[in-house]
Amino acid sequence: MSANKVLGIIFSNIYDEKIRELTETRTMASVPFGGRYRLIDFVLSNMVNAGINKVGVITKNNYQSLMDHLGSGKPWDLSRKREGLFILPPFSNGNSEYNTRIESLASVNRFFQHSNEDYVFLSDSNYVCNIDCKKMLESHIQTGADVTVAYRFGRIPEKYADTVSYEIDPDGRVRDALVKPNIDGACNYGLPMMIISKKLLLKLVSDCVSRNQYDFERDLIQRNIPNYHFNGYEFPGFFRSICSMNDYFESNMALMQPKVRGELFTPERPIYTKVRDDPPARYGLGSHVSNSLVADGCEIEGDIENCVLFRGVHIGKNSKVSNCVIMQDSQIGQNCRLDYVITDKDVVIKNERSMMGFQSYPVFINKGSIV
Question: Which spans are transmembrane here (predicted)?
Answer without folding.
Answer: none
